[in-house]
Design goal:
Distance between the termini: 22 Å
Bound molecules: (2S)-amino(hydroxy)ethanoic acid, manganese (II) ion
Largest sheet: 9 strands, mixed
CATH class of the largest domain: Alpha Beta
CATH topology of the largest domain: Aminopeptidase
Oligomer: single chain
Number of strands: 16
CATH architecture of the largest domain: 3-Layer(aba) Sandwich
Length: 413
């Protein structure tokens, strides 16, 4: 089995075919969750897996599971997967590389007529990005019971479309109840989305920890008035107050080691150049690998909002709607052993981004395989990697899954 290798050309070709769905002029992907492009990608994934002999199941949140039977149906499955949805100006690899590395494992097992003791399952998780609907990792979060199904079905995008209606519209409102799969191990392959592996010239990252995340919706209410006639001292400028908050968020990210702080989404009302903005709605994303540091950032952020509100005589509402605690990966040693077995240079690493495996780690030993991306750039249309780097990730995934399958079979004897 040691010599077993994936077909790098086929994997790269599958990535380029999938990239057609939502392809942008700059060569990236705009495939927001539950849009027609997401549907096309999902349909193609299901077609490829059916052609490879899998049985397809879809759950009530549109999560997809393609199952390749094993010799012993009493054993739990070894699973892998990631997401097909992208950022609005996303790349060709974030998420989809993990899904198609799984498909390449599936095809490689078939090519070599390998009968595994446990079943292998290949999954696609709904709305990992959290861009169109919040929060991120929504499908895997519902699956593991972190989020309530009905609440998440009712979430709406900026145009008022809700998740449940959109799942139905694209044909992925499945009937399988949430959380029904019998997984014994879960692995996710993903580009690092940062510069560390490339800078350290390592082929594979063994992800030991997923950092903590706090997301907020902030609404600043001031007073609309004329930009020409309102003296500066009398203004309640919601946008100027928001800019001060956002500058302070950036300072919070700079203040603590390994911290990041970001505002990526903003709506200004009435958004007219000669009316002082009366209301501004924006996002805040705080992250840190250490829960206590993230807690301090949370406290400082909230008190900073209150003092700015007081000083500027505006109202600032902070809705802290998502907290994801840092998570350790229990199956990362499988990934390390696989990287050593197949002979790839590797290093331990922390995941700066959230991933579906971070929630799967709640319910089953999980591991992540990271591979480098060019200049560490992601969530950008120029996101890039190479066929060889994808091949390394898929080979490590293949051998991680085979090792976990053997272990589960031995444990059951
Ligand atoms: O937000 C994240 O880290 C991921 O891209 N959803
Ligand atoms: Mn991702
Ligand atoms: Mn992403």
């Amino acid at each position: 089995m040691q010599k077993l290798k994936v077909n790098a050309e086929r994997l790269w070709e599958s990535l380029m075919i999938m990239a057609q769905f939502g392809l942008t002029e700059k060569g990236g992907c705009n495939r927001l969750a539950l849009t027609d492009n997401d549907k096309k990608a999902r349909d193609l994934f299901c077609k490829w897996c059916k052609e490879a002999g899998c049985e397809i199941s879809i759950d009530q949140f549109g999560n997809i599971f393609a199952k390749r039977k094993g010799q012993n149906s009493d054993l739990p499955s070894v699973a892998t997967g990631s997401h097909l949805d992208t950022q609005p100006t996303g790349g060709k690899f974030d998420g989809v590389f993990g899904v198609l590395a799984g498909v390449e494992v599936l095809r490689t097992l078939n090519d070599n007529n390998i009968e595994t003791e446990t079943a292998f399952e290949f999954s696609v998780w709904t709305n990992e990005e959290g861009s169109r609907f919040q929060p991120a990792m929504q499908g895997s979060g519902v699956y593991v019971g972190r989020f309530d199904l009905q609440t998440e079905w009712n979430k709406t995008d900026v145009d008022g479309h809700n998740v449940k209606d959109e799942l139905e519209r694209i044909g992925y409102l499945g009937s399988e109840p949430i959380g029904q799969r019998n997984f014994g191990a879960f692995f996710e392959t993903h580009i690092e989305q940062g510069p560390i592996l490339e800078n350290q010239s390592k082929e594979v990252g063994i992800v030991r920890l997923g950092q903590g995340i706090r997301w907020y919706d902030v609404v600043v209410n001031g007073q609309e008035s004329h930009s020409g006639t309102t003296p500066m001292a009398l203004r309640k400028d919601a946008l100027a107050a928001s800019c001060e908050v956002i500058t302070e968020v950036e300072k919070l990210g700079l203040k603590y080691e390994h911290a990041v702080g970001t505002t990526g989404f903003m709506q200004v009302t009435p958004n007219s150049r000669n009316t002082i903005p009366g209301q501004v709605r924006f996002s805040v994303d705080l992250r840190n690998p250490h829960p206590d540091v993230l807690e301090s950032m949370h406290e400082e952020f909230n008190s900073m909002c209150q003092s700015i509100a007081k000083a500027r005589q505006v109202d600032i509402e902070v809705d802290h709607f998502w907290y994801f605690a840092p998570v350790k990966f229990q199956a990362s040693d499988d990934v390390k052993k696989a990287a050593e077995k197949v002979g790839y240079s590797h290093m331990d690493i922390v995941a700066g981004a959230g991933h579906d495996a971070c929630y799967m780690a709640d319910i089953v030993p999980s591991g992540m395989v990271f591979t480098p991306c060019e200049n560490g750039i992601s969530h950008n249309e120029i996101e890039n990697t190479t066929p060889e780097q994808c091949e390394a990730g898929a080979n490590v995934l293949l051998h991680s899954m085979l090792a976990a399958s053997q272990r589960l079979a031995e444990e059951a004897k």
